[in-house]
Every structure is written in structure tokens, then in C-alpha cells.
Design a protein that fits this description.
Helix content: 40-55%
CATH class of one domain: Mainly Alpha
Distance between the termini: 204 Å
CATH topology of one domain: Serine Threonine Protein Phosphatase 5, Tetratricopeptide repeat
Radius of gyration: 66 Å
Number of strands: 12
Largest sheet: 5 strands, antiparallel
Oligomer: single chain
Shape: rod-shaped
Strand content: 5-15%
Structural class: alpha+beta
CATH architecture of one domain: Alpha Horseshoe
Length: about 575
Amino acid sequence: MTDSFDTADTPQATPEPTPEPAIDTATSEAAQEAAPTPEAPVVPDSESEASTIPAPSERPPAPQYPPAPEQYPPPQEHPLSFDPNQPSGPYAGPYSGPYSAPYPGPPPYPYPAPTTQPRYDYQYGTHSQPLYGQLTMLGAQVSPRRQPPQWLQSLARPFLFWIPLVAILVTLALFGVLVFLGNDWAQSALFVGLAAGAVFLLLATLTILRLAGGMGNAENTHRVRQVMSAGLALVLLLGLFGGAVILQTPLHHAQAASFEGQKQWQLALNEYKQAGEKSPSSNDLARVYNEWAEESEAQGEYSSAIDFFSSVLKTYPGATMQVARAKSGLVAAYIAWGKAALDSKEYQSATQRLDTLLALDYCDDACKTTAGAADATAYYNLAETALASQAYDVAVDKFHSLVQRFPSSPEATQAHADLAKSLLGLGQKQRGGICSEAIPTYQELSTKFGDTTEGQAATSELAKPQPVIGRFTKAVPSGAFVILAKGINNSMSDAAFFRAVGSPAPRVRANGDGSFRFGSIAQGEWDLVWGNGSHYFFSYHRDTGDSYWKAQVGPLCAFDLGPIDEDFS
């Protein structure tokens, strides 16, 4: 009887018997002692019954692990077909490559699959490069994958080391040129960002083409480096583009601060405005104007300083801290400007500037004290200058401003005597022109400056008699005369009338042209009477009877009766 080895549910070819080796007794005994059998073998003798257990030489060999290719059973119902172009391997068993199994289910053999199997998914060409080949599936034939064009495959290969280097240098040079083309940092950054966006598009297109040409295939050993370098460059370019757009306002602010630190005030203002700063509450713009004004003041450009400070007050009232700074700066600038005019003896300019300051509502007590003292000095010097040049009207005006606006100043006390001189000079000038204008001047001089020689002279002049003049418009007979009398009335008696026109009533002869002149007539009201030697005449108001022609003789000036349209007959 013989034993056999069968696999469960799978037919297997019976191995061919191997020739029995010749062994000696000693060797056989040693083998039997070393054999791992549970029972010791029984050696029959010649007289024993024939053994039913095969001899060791007759036993089939133990299964080989891993099994030999010929020991794999063929698949049931689905015979395998192989491509004649597939590389041969040490095993003829079922496919166990990197792709999914040709058919589902457990392997048809009870042994683990070998750890190394040949690949059946590629065909290898003459260039020893793995090509997309033909995968034989159970019952189906898959056509080879379409190869990309040769130019794409060439583009997918790694570049020579100098090509990326040159590209980087050219890109950096382009960025450098664009930096200098911008008018400011923000514009330069925008130019660079736009250029980076254009380079990004070019590089992205190139990368896509290279990937299509096989740059990312597993057979490309440089694919990781190529993809990572391209991705990093794309990220950097995209970052440049986005940053250039996002950072426009911060860049304007940064450059404005830089210009401000360099005291390039107008450029700083321009940048702050481009950054979005505007009135009425921009603290940055107001600060720059204040700093510009302070620098101008330090350089003696007071007019510009005042203009800049005023711009802050008018345009940026919402920047409260800078408004307070501008007010303080304006006070200091006006005082400095006024004193500078005093030092250069430009007294008129000094008074104008200081007057403007004193009229401001934020000129406090300290401001008024300082500016008032300087203004009083300016007015005094201006008046003295005018008096010295006999510009009496200007001198009187400036002396008046001094004593009225700054009565407690030392200059107001010093101006008393010189103001009297100025008033007398002005009065005398007025008497030579429109005499009536001199009367208030002399009266002021007489009442307020009686302690001066000029005031006393004015008092005397005010009391003096004054001439009376007139002219008859009709024919004047020979021997005609004119009388100034008092109290003439139509209701008075003849005796009273003749007493009034008699001595000491002033009498003068009328000239042939009808004109007459009384040299010195006491101040007061006089009635006009005229005659031809035998008759006297006067005109009166019908309702009151009072004399019509009256001479109101006043101080300083002659009284002119004007044209008299009366007859001497």
C-alpha cells in the first residue's frame, strides 16, 4: 500500500518517482534515528509478513516552499493568457503586481505570495526607460496609453542649471528697473506686483505644460525637486502680486512718514493724501502743516508759517491736538513777526501784524501782555516818525491809537507832549484848507493839553475874532456900505434901529463888484444891514420878523455870507 499527498479541492499532478539512492546499514540506521517520526520504524526480517508501509525511499518528497512554478495549479474557468513581449520571471503563477488583481478572490494556492514579483504593467523599450505598455486583463485587451508629444517630453526634462539662474536674474533685474520707474514706493510696488503677476502666469503655464509632458511621472527621479521649486516660485510670485495690491495704503503711509522725517513737507502731504488722509480730522496732515510752519518760523519765514498754521485751523478743525498746537504757534509767529518788523523799523507792518494777533479770540492774557507791549512801541515809533516828517495827520492818528488802546503803557505817557505838537501842526494845516475841520482839533488841544504850550496857544486862537465876508450880486451904487448889527427885527422902532446900526456897529464900504470884508468880528451872531448913504435896508422873515441875513461868527475861521441877491434901492 502507498501513501499520496493531495490538496483540498484542487487536482495536482503526482510527482514523478525519484530513483532510490543506495545506502548502507549504518547510514540507514543513523537516518532512522534522526528522522522526526513519532514511532521508531520496524525493520522486518526475511521471515516477517510483507510491510504495508512504504519504505522511506518510496515516500513522495515534501512540498517545496515557496512552491515551484510548475506546482501552481492553473486558474479555474479563466485560463491566463500572456503577452509574448512581457519579461519572463521566475514564476509562472498569477499576477501580483502594483495594480489590482486580474480577478477577485483568494489566491489559488495555500502559500503566501513571494515578496518579489515581476512587473507586468510596463513595456521596456530600447532606451531602458519604462514605457506605458499593455496590461493583459482577464478576457480583455487594453490598448497602450497615448504618449505626449516629443516637445512636451523634452520640456519635462530637468533644465540645465544655468537656465533657472538666468531666469531668476532677469526677473530680479526687471523688478529692479520697475522699482525706479515708480514715483513713490506704492507705485513702484504696484509695478513690481503687476510684473510678478505676469511672470506668475508664464511660470504657471510652463509648469502645466511640463506636467503634461511627464514631469510628474514616477520614472522621473527629479520630479519632487522640479515640482517643489516651481511651486515655491509660484507662491513667491503670487505673494508679490497680492502684497503689492494689499500694501498700497501702508506703503503710502510709510513713505509719508519717511518724507516727514526728512522734512520734505510737500511730499509728505502728498503721500498722506494718497494714503486716504483728508480733512477735517486728519491728524497726520495737520501735524505736517504744523511742523512745516514751525520750521518756517525758525527760518524767519513768518508769513509762510502763519499761512500753514492758519491752514490747520481752517481745514482740520477735527484734529484737536494739532489745532491747539497751531494756535500756540500762530501767537508765537505773530509776535516774532511783529518784533522783526520793529527791529527793521517797519513800524506800520509791525502794528498791522500785532493788531491782527490781538484781535484773535485765542490770544489770552499772556498773549495780550506780550503783543500789547510790542504794539505800543510800534505805534509810538510810527507816530514819532510821522511827526518828524510833519505828517501831522498820521502822527495824530497813531498817537491816538497808542493812548486809547494802551493807556497804561510807558509810550502813552511819553507821547503826551508830542501829541500836542502833532495836534497843533494838524490844526494849522486844516485852517489853511477846510478851516472848519480845524475847530475840533484846536478844541481838543485846548481842553486836553492845556499844560502844554501848544494847548495854551490853541485856547488863545479859539477866542480870537474872525473875519466876515460876502458879495452882493446886483449893482452897487457909489458910497454903498455894509453894517453888522445885533438884534435887528422888523418890529423894532426907528430909534432902536438907528441905535443898533450906529456906532460901535462895524461898518465897511462895498466894493464896486459887490464884495465886502469885515476884518475882525467878535464871535457871535450878527445881522446884516446895507445902505446907499440915505437909506438903510435889511431883509427879514415874514413869520418871525427876524433878520434874514445873519453872520454866525465862530472860532478860528472867517464867516462867509456868500452871494447876497439884494438891491441898494
